[in-house]
Write a sequence for this structure.
């Protein structure tokens, strides 16, 4: 399960996002690349804000959610965007398998976070919702844009290359967020309810 979970680490998804944005910018449209950038940035920002808020305030709020899953949120946003971009280039008969592969990857990452004990079902669900909102934002705009063709072979080679190079790498993002959240809780009284 650890190996599956690693496909959702920011050490993999950040380079994959950069490659995807660069490909869309170069071959499709700058507007589409901008929409993708905004959607992914929104996903990361909202996830960070929720993580800091819940981690900092969990002792006071006593919620079931301590830290929304960043693996889940960023995975559905990135792999979902990748699936939309790839499916848009593909014949209609190839589109369902593309979306099925995306759902399998995201579902595997989400399940792995629970099985590994990194997150609860509620935390993974919240992460998936955040990522789905970002993906929905991207899809709603991207699918209305006129974009040029993107070579599916190039897309596939670059995606597989990024996954091979970065799979297994890890960034200590959760530790950084926890340290910041604890510092925030110490400095502010924002977590006190009524």
């Amino acid at each position: 399960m650890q190996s599956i979970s690693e496909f959702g680490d920011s050490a993999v998804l950040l380079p994959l996002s950069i490659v995807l944005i660069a490909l869309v910018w170069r071959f499709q449209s700058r507007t589409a690349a901008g929409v993708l950038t905004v959607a992914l940035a929104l996903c990361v920002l909202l996830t960070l804000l929720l993580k800091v808020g819940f981690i900092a305030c969990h002792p006071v709020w006593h919620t079931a959610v301590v830290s929304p899953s960043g693996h889940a949120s960023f995975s559905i946003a990135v792999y979902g965007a990748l699936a939309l971009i790839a499916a848009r280039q593909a014949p209609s008969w190839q589109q369902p398998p593309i979306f099925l592969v995306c759902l399998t990857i995201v579902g595997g990452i989400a399940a792995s976070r629970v099985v590994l004990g990194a997150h609860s079902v509620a935390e993974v669900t919240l992460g998936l919702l955040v990522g789905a909102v970002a993906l929905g934002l991207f899809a709603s705009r991207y699918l209305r844009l006129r974009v040029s063709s993107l070579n599916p072979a190039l897309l596939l080679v670059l995606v597989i290359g990024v996954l091979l190079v970065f799979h297994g790498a890890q960034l200590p993002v959760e530790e950084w967020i926890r340290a910041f959240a604890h510092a925030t809780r110490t400095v502010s009284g924002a977590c006190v309810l009524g």
In short: The chain is about 75% helix and 0% strand. Helices lie at 2-5, 10-28, 30-61, 70-89, 95-115, 121-142, 152-166, 173-187.
